[in-house]
């Protein structure tokens, strides 16, 4: 959702600035570019990067995920590291907090309900108008294109009807000198199809009722509809329309009219007092299409298109690991050279022979000490990937103290290490029997992730609790993880149930774990080796 909101906001702000610069351009031009900005809020920008059309476009884009620390932006195969997916074990209240996408859907669905409510109010209004109105054939000489009905409604005039348009005229207007201008105004609205645009604006305004940017855009769009209508009427009636409009709009009865968000969309001549004054002033200015206006619109559209194309969501859950490679930033030659040297130094990392593993570990350490520091994202990535490879080698050698000491050397205080490496530290502490320190690392990790842990991290935390004989916390941690296929977690649950003498729960979960662990007394599984993306390159 981050890239969707950011893209739409950038496009909308660009359009708003353009409209401000086009204040002397024809109102219809401003109206159309405002509608383009509103239409952008219906475009699912977050999915565009997954289309084949956009493959290979990464060199021209930046990744929103780089603005916020994210595991998948660094590690495509992040099965064994922590991400923001699961709830913290000791903060049950987070269960009640929905995701951003869920909140968005609820707000949009509420907007659909609001639109249906406004449609219902509109239908009710039309019925009441027909009951409390009468036709006015005596006005046919002014307009014979649309029927005119006299009503007691407070507005001087307004138009309704998607299929059968009707102009509704306040009964006292028949004796006013502004009658011709008022009717011409509503006829022009209908001839331009503004009734359809008004309903479209009403729909957008309802769906995005919670979005101040959209409400600002819809408000400006409705104003531009009125201004464009005034411009056409001015061309037809000349100075008479300007005088009639000033006489009508500046009257006290019209200033009392206050807009209501729930009011059905109507094409009427009454607006806020400030806008009515603006309408009168704008009629003194000649509105003609100039080349500079077209240049400004073209520039605005180009910048908006660039903003949409530049933003790629690097944290989409729908992307498969195999696709992340094509979406990753293009690496420099220096990065590629250091990576090749690292792989050469760690040639024995896949071996099971202690001698070759020790050579690989020493090679990685020497490579790290002698290499030149890269810049930005490349430095963070190669440092992370090389440490994970070193972590894998030391784990195979069961040299867990070396993992901790290497971490202290590679990530000195103040170096801002990747937060999910706490999971690697916790695993080392568990293997060394320092369970309190493992719990401290993982609980701190959970706090940094706003109370969320990945399945693997949650399993590690539960295992540490088990070794501390805190079975209640272990079970609570495991039950908060939505991982139906997490065999390791199910084995831990089975072990906890056995310790709690809960035979019923043991029987329920027995079929979900391997037979070797479905025994009594229950057995704890061995921790798996930490993975490394670089192993497949060796």
Attribute tags:
single chain; 538 residues; mainly alpha; two-stranded parallel ribbon; 21 helices; elongated; Peptidase_M56; Beta-lactam_resp_regulator; TPR_rpt
Describe this structure in words.
The chain is mainly α. The protein has 21 helices and 7 strands. It has helices at residues 2-21, 27-39, 100-131, 179-191, 194-207, 212-237, 239-249, 252-255, 273-282, 291-310, 321-327, 333-345, 354-370, 376-396, 400-410, 422-431, 435-448, 455-467, 471-479, 487-499, 503-509, and strands spanning 62-63, 133-135, 148-151, 157-160, 166-170, 267-268, 311-312. The strands form 2 sheets. It has a 5-stranded mixed beta sheet, sandwiched between helices. A two-stranded parallel ribbon has the order 1-7. The longest helix has 32 residues, at 100-131. Mean pLDDT is 79; it is low at 50-97, 252-256 and 312-327.
SSE layout and pairing:
Blueprint: H1 2-21, H2 27-39, E1 62-63, H3 100-131, E2 133-135, E3 148-151, E4 157-160, E5 166-170, H4 179-191, H5 194-207, H6 212-237, H7 239-249, H8 252-255, E6 267-268, H9 273-282, H10 291-310, E7 311-312, H11 321-327, H12 333-345, H13 354-370, H14 376-396, H15 400-410, H16 422-431, H17 435-448, H18 455-467, H19 471-479, H20 487-499, H21 503-509
Parallel strand pairs: 1-7, 3-5
Antiparallel strand pairs: 2-3, 4-5, 4-6
Helix pairs in contact: 1-2, 1-10, 2-6, 3-5, 4-6, 5-6, 6-7, 7-9, 12-13, 12-14, 13-14, 14-15, 15-16, 16-17, 16-18, 17-18, 18-19, 18-20, 19-20, 20-21
């Amino acid at each position: 959702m981050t890239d969707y909101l950011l893209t739409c906001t950038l496009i909308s702000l660009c359009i708003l600035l353009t409209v401000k610069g086009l204040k002397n351009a024809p109102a219809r031009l401003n109206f159309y570019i405002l509608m383009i900005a509103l239409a952008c809020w219906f475009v699912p920008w977050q999915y565009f990067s997954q289309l084949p059309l956009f493959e290979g476009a990464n060199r021209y884009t930046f990744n929103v995920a780089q603005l916020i620390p994210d595991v998948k932006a660094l590690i495509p195969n992040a099965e064994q590291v922590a991400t923001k997916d699961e709830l913290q074990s000791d903060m049950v209240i987070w269960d009640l907090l929905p995701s951003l996408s869920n909140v968005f859907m609820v707000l949009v669905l509420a907007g659909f309900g609001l639109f249906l409510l406004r449609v219902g109010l509109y239908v009710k209004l039309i019925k009441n108008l027909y009951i409390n109105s009468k036709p006015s054939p005596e006005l046919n000489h002014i307009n014979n294109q649309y029927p005119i009905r006299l009503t007691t409604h407070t507005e001087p005039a307004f138009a309704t009807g998607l299929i059968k348009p009707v102009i509704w005229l306040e009964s006292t207007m028949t004796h006013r000198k502004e009658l011709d201008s008022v009717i011409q105004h509503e006829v022009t609205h209908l001839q331009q199809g503004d009734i359809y645009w008004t309903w479209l604006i009403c729909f957008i305004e309802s769906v995005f009722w919670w979005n101040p940017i959209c409400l600002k855009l819809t408000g400006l769009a409705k104003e531009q509809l009125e201004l464009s209508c005034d411009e056409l009427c001015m061309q037809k009636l000349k100075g008479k329309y300007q005088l009639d409009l000033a006489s009508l709009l500046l009257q006290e009865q019209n200033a009392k009219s206050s807009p209501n968000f729930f009011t059905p969309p109507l094409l009427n001549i009454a607006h806020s007092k400030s806008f009515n004054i603006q309408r009168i002033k704008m009629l003194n200015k000649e509105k003609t299409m100039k080349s500079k206006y077209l240049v400004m619109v073209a520039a605005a559209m180009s910048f908006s298109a660039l903003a949409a194309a530049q933003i790629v969501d690097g944290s989409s859950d729908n992307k498969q690991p195999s696709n992340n490679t094509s979406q990753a930033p293009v690496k420099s030659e220096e990065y590629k050279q250091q990576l090749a040297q690292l792989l050469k130094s760690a040639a024995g990392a896949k071996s099971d022979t202690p001698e070759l593993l020790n050579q690989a570990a020493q090679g990685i350490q020497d490579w790290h000490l002698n290499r030149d520091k890269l810049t930005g994202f490349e430095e963070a990535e190669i440092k992370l990937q090389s440490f994970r490879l070193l972590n894998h080698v030391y784990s195979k050698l069961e040299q867990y103290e070396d993992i901790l000491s290497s971490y202290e050397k590679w990530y000195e205080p103040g170096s801002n290490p990747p937060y999910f490496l706490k999971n690697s530290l916790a695993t080392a502490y568990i293997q060394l029997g320092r369970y309190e320190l493992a719990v401290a690392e993982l609980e701190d990790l959970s706090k940094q992730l706003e109370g969320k842990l990945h399945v693997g991290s949650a399993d590690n935390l539960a295992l540490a609790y088990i070794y501390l004989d805190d079975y209640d916390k272990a079970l609570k941690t495991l039950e908060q993880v939505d991982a139906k296929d997490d065999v390791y977690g199910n084995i831990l649950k089975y072990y906890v149930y056995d310790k709690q003498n809960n035979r019923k729960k043991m029987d329920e979960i027995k079929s979900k774990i391997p037979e070797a662990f479905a025994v009594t007394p229950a057995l704890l599984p061995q921790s798996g080796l930490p993975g490394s993306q670089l192993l497949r390159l060796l």
